[in-house]
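Re-run with default settings, no changes from the original entry. Doing this only to confirm the output is reproducible before filing.
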Amino acid sequence: MSIDEARRLEIWRLRGELRQLRSTWRRELQFHLSHIEEPISAGWLERQFNAAVASIGVDREGEADRQVYGKITEGLLQLSLIEYAMRLDQVFAAASDACRAFERTLADELVELRS
């Protein structure tokens, strides 16, 4: 079954919007992940304070690990959205007989990721 030109153009427009969304979500994910502080990178004084607090029975390191885990888990939602948008783009490309264009745009997105 073939689709008419008007539908093909609409699918092309929607695919462009999906590419823009993926790009935005990738930047947001990179920003989110870049602001997760590694507990090991804490300053010397903070590590000494945490060790002193731990010696009286308060587990601040465990809390820091839970916070990092929580922040990484939040990023998984954005990663899922990126994957979903990519799969939807692939379906649209297959439906409009534009698989080669889809492959080229993915290659362009990889170049964007590296820069």
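Residues 5-114 form one domain. Residues 20 and 63 are 37 Å apart (CA to CA).
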